[in-house]
Specification:
Blueprint: H1 8-19, E1 26-30, H2 34-48, E2 53-57, H3 60-68, E3 93-98, E4 102-104, E5 107-109, H4 116-125, E6 126-134, E7 146-150, H5 155-164, E8 168-171, E9 188-193, H6 200-208, E10 213-216, E11 218-219, E12 225-229, E13 235-238
Parallel strand pairs: 1-2, 1-3, 3-6, 6-12
Antiparallel strand pairs: 4-5, 5-11, 7-9, 7-10, 8-9, 12-13
Helix pairs in contact: 1-2
Bound molecules: ribulose-5-phosphate.
Family: Belongs to the ribose 5-phosphate isomerase family.
InterPro entries: NagB/RpiA_transferase-like (IPR037171), Ribose5P_isomerase_typA_subgr (IPR020672), Ribose5P_isomerase_type_A (IPR004788)
Keywords: Isomerase
Length: about 240
């Protein structure tokens, strides 16, 4: 679920500071959401000024914004050495910059924009994953609902299994759409409230093995640094 307390000034500070980390001649993962958008626009301005970079978008929205900003794009298989009929080896993303909905002790809840499946794929593949957030996202422990992308037919069975785990699943709907939110991958999202999550790693493992779960929004041990912006334009680098 989106936390809406942060200001644009704080998001801008985090996003634009992280955009300075992009080196010439590299591949950068482009995150989703309003904070990552500040980074994408800043990278676009650097491209205008001559920066040679290729972007891998984490969502339809990130791709559209990157195109608007003139950032050359490649697809993930283009940087993983995949040949037809082959799995390829490793990934060639140097740096990923992405937002988060909640951060505690360097672990994240993501998926407020329903893009967490592809975000995890890109962010985890990067040599360095920098999270950009405003201060309202940083808490002592994770306790927001965890977005879980599910195959459409699995929404009921996953909700049952989430209840067995002590959680409560709610099918995500949108304000300006009849029916549920459909992800970029054609799936549904159930937001699963567990209250305080004392062991995110254990919960992540339990959610991952549920039949019909495509991806959940717990990002445990994936982030390398978290850039926390404040209203005055300062950025605190944590868990680096
Ligand atoms: O996980 C995400 C999308 O799936 C976003 O990164 C997250 O929702 C943060 O967005 P914002 O910066 O707009 O608060």
């Amino acid at each position: 679920m989106k936390r809406t307390g942060g200001t644009d000034a704080a998001k801008r500070a985090a996003g634009e500071t992280a955009a300075e980390l992009v080196d010439d001649g590299t591949v950068v993962g482009l995150g989703t959401g309003s904070t990552a958008a500040f980074a994408i626009r800043a990278i676009g301005r650097r491209v205008d000024a001559g920066l040679d970079v290729r972007g891998v978008a984490t969502s339809f929205a990130a791709r559209e914004l990157a195109r608007e900003c003139g950032i050359p794009l490649v697809e993930l298989p283009d940087v993983t050495g995949v040949e037809p009929g082959d799995c390829g080896v490793g990934a060639g993303i140097d740096l990923a910059i992405d937002g988060a909905d909640q951060v505690a002790d360097g672990d994240l809840i993501k998926g407020g924009g329903a893009a967490h499946a592809r975000e995890k794929l890109v962010d985890d593949a990067a040599d360095r994953f920098v999270v950009v957030v405003d201060r309202s996202k940083v808490t002592e422990t994770l306790d927001d609902p965890v977005p879980v992308e599910v195959l459409p037919d699995a929404r009921g069975s996953v909700a049952d299994r989430v209840a067995d785990l002590g959680g409560e699943a709610t099918l995500r709907t949108a304000d300006r759409k009849d029916g549920p939110v459909v992800t970029d991958n054609g799936n549904l999202v159930v937001d699963c409230a567990f209250g305080r999550i004392d062991d995110p790693d254990a919960l992540a493992t339990r959610l991952s093995v549920l039949p019909g779960v495509v991806e959940h929004g717990l990002f445990v041990g994936i982030a390398d640094e978290v850039y926390v912006g404040d209203d005055g334009g300062d950025v605190d680098v944590r868990w680096g």
